[in-house]
Amino acid sequence: MNKTIRILLADSHGPIMGKDQSSPNLSLLYLASYIREKTSFNVEFKYLPQSKLEIDHLNIVKEFNPHIYAVSFTSYAAEVTYQLINKIKKLNPNILIVCGGPHATPSSKDVFEKSDTDICVLGEGEQTFLEIVSNLDNIEIEKHNIHGISYLNNGKFTQNIERGLITDIDSIPFPARDLVDDRDFTGLVYSKARPNAEIVVTRGCPFRCVFCANPVFRLKEGPLFRSRSPQNIVEEVEELYQLGYREIFIHSDELNLSLDWSIELCKALYNMNHKDLYFQTHLRASPMSKKFAFWLKKANFWMIKMGIESTSDRVLLGVKKKMSHNKTVLACKTLSEQRIKVFGFLMLFNYWEEDGELQHDTIAETKETIKEMYKLWRKGYLHYISWEISRPVQGSEFYDIALKHGLIDKNYYPNDYFNTFKFIKGSSKKEFNNIFRASRMQQAVLILTSGNIEWRNYKGIWRKGMTIIKGIKN
Ligand code: B12
Ligand code: SF4
Fold this sequence. Notes:
By secondary structure, the protein is an alpha/beta fold. The chain has 15 helices and 17 strands.
């Protein structure tokens, strides 16, 4: 193949719930670096961040004239993306539209029903997208042989054999960061040093929390968890340090699935000897140990984020979190004793199913959770908190439960306005609004007393602040 293939990598999420984009979409940058490494023909990429409007997408399509419009999106952005795709296809029907990511994977039928998409990539994308690009000239015939995709065959929805996961994720080249302009991103909301970057060090999660939509790495049953080697992670961190970044969010659904690996990683980061380089990450409350907390601090993790969800063990059992409140308290204590700040994620009104009946946390349980969070804060074990309404998201068990019990219908997409109050038994609107305000107020109190907030994300902070005053919009 002598010609150059032009690929427009589009991140269509759009600002969601007041959040501007903190850093580039790594999925698309992984696809680019993988294709660059594995192909001998010429490929030219252009990357569009979430800050670009629909008109920018259409103008760049005209100017760049891509062969492929490759778009990544979550379920929150599905409707916006469908409209965008339809306009692009109308503008130039010859462009191959390929969708991938956490919405296209569980809901590709929906994608074809509502948009002029040509192919959906299901699950991990690197090898599948490489095969699409390599067979572009003959894609109408070759698509039948590419594993891990879906498409319409003479108008009929067709899904090919599943694509196996990449066993050795060290083998995937680092994301093609040269395609992005840092001025398009706000950076981390909470940070100690600027500029900052984000990296992903594990793929998949062995747990199956009811509310969690994590469909990409779940195509087969089983753990499917893979981690990069500490050495490979340190190489990427060093590259970022040399580019001038001074804080890195190390993304992993949970960095402490195996403490031996986690401690080895912390030691490797510590041995880099960059005293001015800070880290943040996600952990589960358990497994936890004093030794691990010690090494996290040594490596310069100044904050960790943890999904606490609720302090009620009944609720934690219901949502299959496989956690207890006692373990959470112990983890917060162990980490804060090392002077690591703890950020807790809490959810307002979790739902689950028990013997076919819909269950959710009661008003009393929610009040108790708010009270317990203040207790932890007063003891100095908890520093930040985020309260979110639990919403059904495509790819989660909650989504299936919500469909079954009539909380949503097939045309539902998650957004700010999921009216959870309608389904809460035993609560007046006033009581519900009071709880909502109390949770937002708690969020504000903790942020204002703990510092390190990045005011560049003022729009999100303002919108959250307004909900304290107005209550929830229904
Ligand atoms: C890091 C992360 C973030 C970071 C993003 C940082 C960044 N700059 O990328 C932050 C914290 C900002 C974030 C925010 C949100 N996130 Co988020 N996030 C993640 C997380 C933990 C990792 C994503 C990642 O980079 N994975 C690594 C890459 C390699 O995997 P990947 O993204 O899935 O991409 C692969 C495939 O999906 C596929 N692929 C993806 N796109 C495309 C496109 C094409 C064309 C092709 C061919 C293939 C392809 O190929 C890729 C390589 O294998 C995932 C959970 C997870 N473990 O994946 C949630 C996740 C993606 N987030 C999710 C959500 C809901 C959100 C928010 C909407 C949350 C909220 N309520 O505000 C916001 C969206 C904000 C916004 N404006 O977009 C959900 C999406 C669920 C869904 N069905 O939509 C997930 C799955 C979490 C969950 N368990 O529920 N998120
Ligand atoms: S919430 Fe966290 S632990 Fe639970 S399934 Fe999702 S990623 Fe795994």
